[in-house]
Structures
1.
Amino acid sequence: MKRATEELEEGEWRACLGDLPSSELEEAKAALSGVEIDVEENLDLDRMLRALARDTATDESMAPSLPLSSRRQFEKRKASAMARVAREEAERRLVEEERRRRERRERHRRSPLRFLRPALTALGAVAAIMGASYLAWEGRALPGDQALVATSAVILTPSGPTGFTEPVFTWKADNGGVVRLEVVDPVTGDLIASLDRAYSPVRFSALDRRSLLAEGRVYRFVVMDAKGEEVLAESGFTTVTGGEGAPQRAGELDEVVAQCESYLAEGRPGDAWMIWAELTSDEKSDPRQQALKARVLDELGG
């Protein structure tokens, strides 16, 4: 049954329009004054207001502005949507980078040259040592621009989620040569940190930092040739919410094993490798630590 809007109770108005400020509620009542509606069939007074506005020949410039509370809700939803789109784009790039990394590893695994690479690497190292020894015997130092330069690399850490905002950057270069490393924001493309003529491993404190890493953010770790002209390897990593600081190993060896196993269980093999790398040479030779190393490297795909 239709009723005039003047007969509606206060509770019916608020059920239809929500918890509006009193001034805005009064404006809505005034706009619908003299209108008869069937409350049982249609409680959406906001829709009636819009229909009434369409049927009324008025100048759009005379229309009242959107209420402040509605504008705030709109801006809040807009900001939330934009942030979600940025996160989804960063995650999409991360997935794509991981896919390309797996494809490169698969091509390397199938290549017949992979069996020759260790021998060529060893020959290159022997030649470099003999050259350096000859120069030393002649009384001359090895020039800086003649240092070994890496031509391919595989990233170990950080990769995937990490609980450290000051991680250790490690990679395998084909000949142990120098590289340029960069940390990039994948969303903005901004360079976060970098280091020229770098050898693995590199602590975060050694980087030429532009800014500190933040928790709950996605970054891209890029290893380039020494001139910074060619990308040798790249991998995305995410600093988990609540993550902070640099890797700190536990005290005893049994505690180190438990610490690394907890990281493996959380899907953070990169963090486990950072902790294992903190061991001394004697500690690393322990059978338990050797078994742990094999597990961590298997998780990393290194």
Note: The first helix runs from residue 10 to 17.
2.
Amino acid sequence: MNSFKGAGGRPGSGEDPKSSSVLNPPDRRPYFWMRPSLWVILILVALVPVAVAWLQYLMFGLPNVPTTPNNLPEVAGTPHGFPVWLRVTHYVNFLFIILLARSGLSILADHPRLYWNVHCRPGSDWIRLTPKVIDPKTACTVNGYWSARDDSRYISPWLALPGFRHTVGLGRHWHFLSALFWVANGLLFVALLLGTGQWRRLVPTSWSILSDAWAVQVHYMTFHLPVEPNGFYRYNALQQLAYFGVVFILAPLQILTGLAMSPAIDNHFKWYGRLFGNRQAARSIHFLGLLGFLGFIMAHVTMVLLTGLARNMNHIVVGTDDLSPRGLILGVFGVGVVVAACALANWVTWRQPRLLQATARVLVQGLTGRFLDPLKPRDQYTREDISPYFWPNGKIPTSAEWTRLAANAFRDYRLLVHGAVVNPVELSLDEIKALGKREQITLHHCIQGWSGIAEWGGVSIARIVELVRPYPEVTRVVFHSFGEGLHSGAYYDTQTLQDALHPQSILAYEMNYEPLGQVYGAPLRLRVENQLGYKMVKWIRSIEFVVSAKPVGLGFGGKNEDDEYYDLVPNI
């Protein structure tokens, strides 16, 4: 198996992850910024309930909290005890929540800005985890501009999975693999919950639970712990509401907002993304959902500690209602196993990344290839929807050939289309334009997390296929670039022939009704709207039709797939 190699910093690059290629380096110290108006809202959300609770307490005293005698094993049909299936799924859920949170942080660090608008215009972010002095519109790197890749941040592998910069591909593999098992475990839990009497623990059956939960909350906020019912038999109203919200509201919301970031879904079902406002709003809600889970875990653990650690651990670990130390010992051991699993995950990532990539291709791509890839991109936007700023990405080519062609406005450019075809051709830009023009205004999804809407004009790839007539055994199309990959070497990527034939798959020579700029891929760039941005090769040098991607590069389907272990078909 291949593994990252390199001296220090980000493995595989020889680069200190804290170093900068910026000509006038900005402040690289950790930075957190949130809009002042949101600080006000956050403070109000935190303080107003506390103030109301204290006002009620000072004016009327503590409210009555409905209690259940702890010596009653069951009240009004409420189940008691925690069966084995509940205890096991509870533990498995904890493991995968930790993996999801850690891998999610790695993904967030690749574009550490969150927005409520789909355009991701610099300055419109509501929270930013990058230094304030960085302004992508004016900052200048050795490439001549500040790209989205330059904006990514270092994050420690002690906190994130896998950590370090430019590892979003590996982080995505862990995130989606963990999500599959987390969802499967959650579905099993809910099915067994609803199929047994255990659902009565979580699902409210009366609106009185709201007033009862507030009564409990007043006690907590005024530092008067209420008489707690024995959790082995039932929860108090606030616990019940909290567990119900996490299981039946927060968890489904995380799944739905995650799907709303899929280019295949967004560009086929335009209405779906609008359920949350837009793609970026879904990303922001997804982040807030992560904070919700972490906040719940902190509160949950705190209450376990305060209300009888030994008895509570026996409840959920061994299923008994006593004060023996067995549950606590086994619980501590279980937490140690989770810590060991996190360490093992980091080891696998850096020592066996191909194994991780192959596993993700079998499990994750097996599902996305079946359910997402067949969704043909079809949604379009209006001219008024075009983003005022579109993040540049990638390194402008430095080859003498591209520089010479660019100096002559690409009048001497020839696109070579060859490989397993009946009629290989070389086409000038004028000849390409003569094949017919398709225009589309579409939503771009970057693997880093940002998005933007732009108009693209170009020739349909289906028209190219019609012209060169590939052999029947052809399955993939290789797009070779004048540009280089992150780890040097010519950039390239592949598309399935099926995806290349989608109506919105084009070779674009126009962006926003003007000739394609050098930063954005001149003379030609690829648009395949059910994929993430790294699959849409810029600065196209040639197109090659092949039977398989195995002989191309290292054989994993593209430059980023070879060097950074990215997805082969990223529909999400």
Note: The mean pLDDT is 89.
